[in-house]
Amino acid sequence: MRKQGLFFILAAVAVGLMFAFEIAQISGVKFFPHHAWELLLLAIISGLVPLVLAFLPSRRNIQLRFGAAVSAVMLGFIGFVVYYVIKALNLPEGAVGFGAVMPLLALIFNILAIRAVISDMKIIRDSNRLR
């Protein structure tokens, strides 16, 4: 398994762990990603696509394009999480949960995977030039 496969799997695991921890606690109610359909849809997309990309090591162009698209989806997901966190912090009894950090961690792993794909493509290009 290559580096990018490991990073894609770690990104998918980080998104999966988000369902185990609450994002915020609003008025005493714990808020998870599956409580809002927008967050659920973005979480499913940003969790399944990196998992599939991890098992396509020979399709570097597909990994690069879909990895960039998933990064954009994760940025939208982080925007929704920030909205719910700000909503929780404006209330006197609101609190931020550990699940609010997981999308950022998944984005970092996804960016590291994209960088590994680019470096792998560069190594292959350089080795083809030497032939």
List strands and helices in order, with pairings.
Elements: H1 3-17, E1 24-26, E2 29-31, H2 37-53, H3 60-90, E3 95-96, H4 102-130
Helix pairs in contact: 1-2, 1-4, 2-3, 3-4
Structure overview:
The model has no long low-confidence stretch (mean pLDDT 82). The chain has helices spanning 3-17, 37-53, 60-90, 102-130; strands at residues 24-26, 29-31, 95-96. The longest helix has 31 residues, at 60-90. Helix content is 70%, strand content 6%. It has 131 residues and is mainly alpha-helical. It has a 3-stranded antiparallel sheet. It has one domain.
Reported for the largest beta sheet, the result is: 3 strands, antiparallel
Strand fraction equals 5-15%
Total number of helices: 4
Intertermini distance = 25 Å
Labels describing this entry:
single chain; 131 residues; mainly alpha; 3-stranded antiparallel β-sheet; 3 strands; 70% helix
Care to give the gist of this entry?
By secondary structure, the protein is mostly helical. The chain has helices spanning 3-17, 37-53, 60-90, 102-130; strands spanning 24-26, 29-31, 95-96. The mean pLDDT is 82.
